Amino acid sequence: MRHRLRVVAAGLLAFGGVRAGAQSSGTLDEIGYTIPFESKVLDETRQISISLPRTYASNTERYPVLVVLDGEFEHEIAASIARFYAATSMLPPTIVIGVRNTDRMRDMTTKPAAGFTPPGEAAASPGGADRFLAFLADELLPYVDRTYRTAPMRVLVGHSLGGLFALYALSQRPAAFTGYIVMEPAIWWNNELEFRAARDVVRSGGAPRARVMLVNTRRTGLDTISWGGDRPMVRELTIAGESHASMAAQGMLLALRTMFSDFRPSDWRPGTRPIAMLDRFDSLAARVGYAVPIPAGAYERAIRMSIHARDFDDASRALDRMERSVGTTAESRALRSLLAEERAMPVQAGFIPLTIPARRPAARDGTRFLGRWVRIDDPAEHVIDVSASGDTIVVHDRIRFPDGSFDEGDHQVIQLTDAGTLEWGLPWFRGIAALLVLKGQLQPDGTLRVTREPRGWVPRGPTGDMMRTEIFRRVP
To answer: Do 428 and 444 contact (CB within 8 A), yes or no?
Structure first.
């Protein structure tokens, strides 16, 4: 296996030259600028590609930085992923720095250790990783910080030999970067010495805030549910169905989305007020060590949902916070107008606040509801499974819509009332802090009568599906 990896790696030593750089110095295209950078540490001029977020010129925010090795090829991949997913709030907007190669083998390998002989052309110029790391940490990153509005989150992205170098950087200067994306690293180099050194640093707590994404590499046994802070965040990820060269796009996408998954706005959780969706960003600051800006879209969603739920004071507080953060915008002014309009309106007829008691129904209390129930008039249209799960019960619905599609899942159990009504909620209201509550009552003839009732919001317009009554029979 190790011999095969060496052969593959030897064939990819010129990987960074797969795509020749088409940009000229200081020009702007869809990806960004490429500038000459004079390095005293390396005693040479390096070409550095820089891609800024689309929002960079329109605000004063500070942005995380991705430093991408093999920049003549992989900078373009990283910049495209960063821009596309920032636009959909799946990633925070980032500054992407692509470091182009001059002597890839020299820069990304360490000095050969005793007992290791570099294969083939790899023996030509190895061992410059220490100088290359000094160039990145002591020259390039300070330049980027001086020149651009950067946040104190820096991610090093390396693939193949670049992955080997990322492991070396993690073991030697773990504080130089906050995150490491290591894709199919050439751990065969030095008989896995760099891999073991990086693993030991993470295991010993030498990189407490590090976020380490290991893609298609040897398992470390360190994969953890930790999100960083006082312990590193380690994820071991797998990309299948790609070659060593082509896996970079999927590997980078999966690693970035995983690394920054807690930067995304959280979904509304039934039983909580919409403003709680902003709490994630407050806890995130403690994990990464700086105040992460809340995306305007996250504010807007929390504010609109608060207004529709008639949590007007929450909406007002979130609006104030939004304008302190991003300034007064056309959207914030529109939200203030909506808030004033809805606050002045009387409570709509039929409005029932959504409240979910903290105590869930005990399994023994719901015994009479357990089993599978089908609609008497059309057994395939709506099936309800009520089952015991631990010390409570779970309700699973399968509902067929008129177009033939289905909604299926375990749905939020709300309560079992003193009157003997089992209530659970369907999350059918997109962007609204409300549930369509189903209320099941056992009848003297053994059937289950289920009615529907929107809570947390009053639907406007046709409401036939929202108010129907269904009769179910229990089946084996």
So the answer is: no
Q: Which amino acid is at 4?
A: R
464 vs 364: CA distance, rounded Å: 34
Residue 409 lies in a domain: yes
Q: Does 214 reside within a domain?
A: yes
Shared domain for 255 and 292, answered yes or no, is no
Q: Is residue 419 part of a domain?
A: yes
Query: Three-state SS for 353?
Result: coil
In angstroms, the CA 432 to CA 303 distance is 10
Nearest to 180 by CA among 206, 196, 159, 150: 159
Residue-wise pLDDT tens digits, 177-196: 999 999 999 999 999 999 99
pLDDT confidence tier of residue 93, bands split at 50, 70 and 90: very high
Token output for 167: 């492991």
Q: Cβ of 49: how many Cβ atoms within 10 Å?
A: 23
Report the distance separating Cα 419 and Cα 183, nearest Å. 58
C-alpha to C-alpha distance for 137 and 210, rounded to whole angstroms: 16
Q: Which domain holds residue 305?
A: 287-344
pTM to 2 decimals? Answer: 0.77
